[in-house]
Amino acid sequence: MSADAPSSAITAPELAERLLLQLFALQDDWDNFLFLFASDEKNVRAMNAVRGGFFARMQRLMFIDVLLGVSRLTDDATVAGKATASLPQLLALTGWQATNRAQWSRFNDGLKAVLLSCKPCRDHRNASLAHSSLHVQTLAPATRKMVEDAIGAIDKFLEEIRLEFGRGPVHRTIEMDEAEQLLEHLLNRRSQKDPSLVGLIVYENGSREAEMQCGFCGERVSFPYYPDSVPSPQSVARMHFAGCDGVVGFEKVKLVAVERDDAVPPRVFILDLSASQND
Length: 279
Known about the structure:
The protein is an alpha+beta fold. The chain has helices at residues 12-37, 41-73, 87-94, 96-99, 101-129, 144-164, 177-187, 190-193, 233-239; strands at 78-79, 82-83, 199-203, 209-214, 220-224, 252-259, 267-272. It has two domains: 12-187, no CATH class; 190-278, no CATH class. It has nine helices and seven strands. The radius of gyration is 28 Å and the shape is elongated.
C-alpha cells in the first residue's frame, strides 16, 4: 500500500475485472466442493463406495485449492519484487493515496478488514500449503465458516470498489454441472431405481457350489454357499458386487437362496454392502 501507484500497463478498473473473474472461479470451486462433500450424505457414501481413497484425496486437493485462491487474491501488492494481481495491488493502482486521501483511507480500512477475515486461510496456506513450516504451529482447524467469511469479505470489497469505477454489480451464475453429472453417473444404478431387485442364489442340496443370478446387472457367477451360515458382505462383494455395474456399493441388497428342487425352504439375507468397504 505505497503512496505512489506502481507503474503498470493495467489500470485499476481493468485489474478489478480480472480479480472479479478470479473470485468467480474461486466461488465455483467452493460451491462444487460443498456440493460433493458437504451437501448430502448420500453423495459422500456413493464416492466412498466407488473409490473412497481417491475421492478423499480429491476432497483435500479441492480444499487446498480454495485456500490458495483466497491467499492469491489477498497477497501483498509486491511479492519477491514482482507485482501481484491482488486486492492490495488494486488499491495501490487507484492512486487514491496521493489524489483522494479520504477515499483511500476508507478503502484501506476496508482492505484491512478483508485481510483480517482472510487471515485464517492464509495462516494455513503459509504453514503447510505454499510452504512447510520447520516448527510446529498450532492453528485452529480449517472450517467451512473460515472459508465463507474470507470469500464473503473479498466479494464485498470488490463490489464496493467496482462501484467507484462506475461498474455495476454482476450476478454470478453458479456452475456445478460437472459435479452434478459426476454424482448422477455414480448413482445411476438399477439398485437406485428399483428397490425390489434381488440376487438369487441357486444351489443343490448337499453341494457347496451354487450360482448367483444377479438381479441388478443380470450376470451369473459361481458362488460358494453354506446352508448353515450367512454370507458376509465382504465375500459377496469380493465374488461379485465390487464389480457389479447395477449397484453403487453402499446399498443393502437382498439375496434369496433357493434349492434347485425346492427340497429346502428359501432363505432370505439382507446384506449391507457398505460393510464390505471395511474389509
